[in-house]
Design brief:
This protein has five helices and nine strands. It has 219 residues and is of the alpha+beta class. It is globular. Bound molecules: zinc ion (ZN).
Length: 219
């Protein structure tokens, strides 16, 4: 069999041409439009902003605090022990919460314990809330019942006074108002959850205070 040269050449050229064509027009594999989740991050940051502003509007505007007062009242830090602050104060008057102005202690509750912090053996009724520390120490933390600011700790059985109880309170948590001076208005916390708690869980008048077992027999 015999092929003429021009015929072979044209066949080769045709094959080459088809190959080149298919390479040139093969659509790229990744040309499909990509759907990017571009809106996800925007949405979540907007939600964060909303929840943040909602939370802030629930909280009343409390008194401005110094960095040390913030450390103590908000982050449970402790003042350095010593005779500074109100430790040795014996003046007549009332001790109120530095953050929300809620009356906490009368000067008649105060005694000198030499422990290095202001000490009280009683409290203004319904002012102070007790909480068991979660650090395993067994200590009882005391906080302002209105704003939940940290006050200090409570110790029983030390026999300092006949009431046998010591509220060991940081000076940074309190403001002393001397007798005869105006007591500032309490900045009430009234969030939705507090209102619900007040409505649904009112302790009866005759029931003994659940958080002060010593008081009932000590008076
Ligand atoms: Zn308070």
């Amino acid at each position: 069999m015999k092929f003429s040269l021009p015929l072979v050449t044209s066949a080769v050229l045709i094959v080459a041409g088809i190959t080149a064509y298919s390479f040139a027009f093969d659509p790229p594999k990744d040309s499909e439009p990509k759907t990017e989740p571009a809106t996800t991050s925007t949405k979540s940051s907007k939600a964060n902003t909303l929840s943040k502003s909602k939370k802030m509007s629930d909280e009343p505007i409390y008194n401005k605090l110094t960095p040390q007062e913030q450390r103590v009242l908000l982050y449970k830090d402790t003042d350095r022990p010593g005779n500074g602050g109100y430790t040795k104060n014996k003046a007549d008057g009332i001790y109120i919460c530095k953050r929300c102005n809620a009356p906490l202690y009368n000067s008649t509750h105060k005694f000198l314990s030499d422990c290095g912090w202001p000490s009280f053996d009683d409290e203004i009724e319904n002012a102070v809330q007790r909480k068991l520390e979660t650090d395993g120490s067994g200590r009882i933390e005391i906080i302002c019942k209105n704003c939940s600011g940290h006050l200090g700790h409570i110790f029983e059985g030390e026999r300092y006074t006949s009431k046998n109880i010591r509220h060991c309170v940081n000076s940074s948590s309190m403001t002393f108002i001397a007798k005869g001076k105006d007591v500032p208005k309490v900045i009430k916390r009234e969030s939705v959850s507090d209102k619900a708690a007040e409505a649904g869980d009112k302790p009866s008048e005759s029931a003994p205070k659940a958080n002060s077992p010593i008081k009932s027999g000590g008076k």
